[in-house]
Amino acid sequence: MSQAVVSVNAVVLLPVLAPAVGAAVVLVADVAAQHLRRAHYVVALVSLVVGALATFAGLGVAAGDARQTLCLSGGVQCMYSADAVASALQLAALLAAAVTLLLSWPDDKKESSGATAVIVSLVLAATAGATAVAGARDLGSWLVALELATLPTVALVALRGARSAISGAVALLTTALVSFGLLALAAALWFTATTSGFLTPAAALTVVADPSRRPILVLAVVLVVAGIGFKLSLVPFHAWTPEAYDGAPLPIAAFLAGVSKIAALAALLVVIRAVAPLGAPVLTSVALVAAASMTLGNVMALRQDGVVRLLAWSTVAQAGWVVLPLATVSAAAVNASSAYLLAYVLATLLAFAVVAALVQTRGTARARELAGYSGLFRDHPVLAAALGLALLSLAGLPPGVLGLVAKVAALRPVVASELWLLAVVAAVNAVLGVAVYLRWLRAVLASPDAPPDAAPDGAAPVAARAVRAHPATLVAVGFAAVALVLTSLSPQLVLGLLGF
Amino acid sequence: MVILLIAALAVPALTGTALIVGGRDSSTSSEGNANLVALAASIATAALVVATVIARPVMDRPWLPALGVKWQFSVDGISAPLLLLTAALGIAVVVHARSYPPHGGSSTTFYGCLQLVEFGALATFLSRDAVVFFLSFEVVLIPMWMLISRYGDSHDLAARSDASGRFVLYTVLGSTLMLVGILTLVQASGTANLDDLAKAHGAGLERPTQIIIAALLLVGLGIKIPLWPLHTWLPPAHTIAPTAGSVLLAAVLLKMGTYGVVRLVIAPLPIGFGALAPVFGALGVVGILWGGLACLVENDLKRLIAYSSVAHMGFVVLGLSSGTTVGLQAALFANVAHGVVSALLFFLVGGLKERWGSADLATARAALREVSPRLGLAAVVGFAASLGLPGLVGFWGEFLAMYAAWSPAPDRPQGLMRVLAVVAVTGTAVAAGYSLRVLRLIWSGDRTSPAHADAHGGEWSVLAVLVAAVLVLGVAPGLVLNTTIKDVASITAEVSR
To answer: Can you tell me whether residue A78 is helix, strand or coil?
Structure first.
């Protein structure tokens, strides 16, 4: 009886395996029965829920402990390790993917595009990549999982076929390739510096013995920050974001803003946590990138008149907040960064879900333009309240307490490390952010005094009211809204997930 | 007894949320219903606040263990007068709105916002955890923004959105800087409990650290107070806001700034505040003169009262910067006094603006003395208190603040503080000038046209109660001073060490 070289525990891997198996099942089912549409979505949702339930085992583990598998014989080094933070990010990715699927649920009244199975399986594959990268602890699976999380999104953006979609997809693809190149180089440098294929503190600490290898490791980390900066939409690697968001179908834009960002941060955290014991000075580059992202993202978001582009630039600004705590070296910084990401993803998904519901009820033209939102509070009070909560959460103002607590958590490590300049830049950006989101909220609350096209459009409001949003979209809105309300009442629900 | 405290916060919070989320019907019947609900809620809140102030319960529950944030609420002598003021004005704005229903949106949302502002203010004054203090500070922003941007002066939409936006952005900048300061303070001293911070009186914090933290906090809170030159958001906000919004803004929200200075700066950072106090006091005195001079030429009555607020808060700042028990007492009394007087004046002017159609002083109006003696009485008492007439509530705070500045704490530069005191005295002369100017324009004379109705019902009862408060607290300032003295003395005892 010889022991296997690598031990595999499928239960531990379930958060990754469930969406991957789901993707395979969907493709096989599509071959067997070509006209299935809703069944694909049901399969996908079930696999996502199974994966989400499986993460709970990892959420409960004590600090410093983790659920590991794919261990080399001897069990010292494992290629997969999910602690509380990784499990929380996996859970968020799986739930965000579920919301995305609900938003793209097929409408019986419309003709099928014929690509349902492809869309569903691509979403599941990218989600599997996101959950895998959170647990990956070796260079190979880390790189592959990160690309698995990225490449399907290119296809998802392009599938709509419109001109803007193609240009968005091209921007995304170019970015993905550059980013992959940087990351591959970073992986090679990491191996050179540490002579280890593992992304662990133990591996990073080997450079302490040989100071001449330290610059190589620093360069590797800088390249990782740059490569992942593309995926997180950090300035100066952000340029693809507005184009891809605007060109993609709305649910896919939500996917890019949610699952893709979780995957990117999870990948970054794997490396950051590995080098944390070194007290790496490279992290000052994170500070610069964070400050630039916040400022540029907010300033550009202030100038947008389309809501999807506004959300895209808001992503750039929020990405700055996400990496802000990582400018310091501490366990609290990793937790704060993850907490901020979860708050951002939840609020952004809710905003996207409301926009999707409004596209169905008020038409694309009105729902995608800021000006089209006037009178929303009067016409659709519940949707307006949900949108208001999402925007205030992104702005970090009560009643969006979750967003505010996330900002407090993100600022804490910065202040503790006495990075005054960065703290003041962040404070100014909190103000700019409020201006961005209140601009939208003001439109929501405004009463349409004199609609310019009132006369010819006289019958439209009646007809518009008759159109109801798709139930699946409303479920997505409801799910995200309830989650945001609960976590705003008790932000500890989010902080606790991360084993804070 | 903790249940009283929780209920005092929960009633306005839940009522406010329910009114905003629940009702949107803008028919007249729902108008009355919303008012009744809000009235019942604010009376219940006031009763609970009074009970809380008497029973002095202490609440201490974990909330965010990850960040070390706790639900710590309690009452002491410093916060008690402000809590009572907030609760009383919470009723007053609802009663006054019976005479002047809101326009510009649904009345349920209007009353909901009022309740949420009251909730935020009460939570700010009750909280003993620095981070919860910050969160409560932020709670009032969005409701107040909605009050200004939706229910404000309907003449000029662009001005409305400008005023409300300016209010929010200035305040958020202030509170975020304050947050940075709070986090640094908590990090450096290892506790977020305001009482522990006060007891430690800066032990273990180096002088440079104290100065940095105090500077961050003073700039942040200075925007809220508002301290010259950070006051530029206040006049437009007051000019545009509906009466209830102006009253809550002047009488309650501005107090959160000075209250924060006492809690977060003076008590925990005596050395840092001592170093910055001369600058702080000088800016306050500039505000006294600046506000007063602006009032001499300002022709919009609401804007004029806003500028007078800048001047009055300057006296509070001067008292705070003196570093003595008398100075702190003066500041806390002037806080309450300004709360009562500015509420009276904004209620009065809000009513006049409705009657006149504008608040422009250049237009000839019927003299209040001739056509509406009740409004005339309120105007005389209000502006007399505003100029600091002895025997009225405005006198004590300003007199004591100047006295404290003349004989400041030993570590303050005495010469400079005396100069500040002298300049502040000229500020009171300016205050007399503008108050009498306004009274001459609106109260005296013998014009009787265009005639307007006198105050009655809800409006008159609110004005009468506030007039009575101006007189009672003016004759018996000990009602407030005796409440605060014990806790103030404990702070200054630490400071003067």
So the answer is: strand
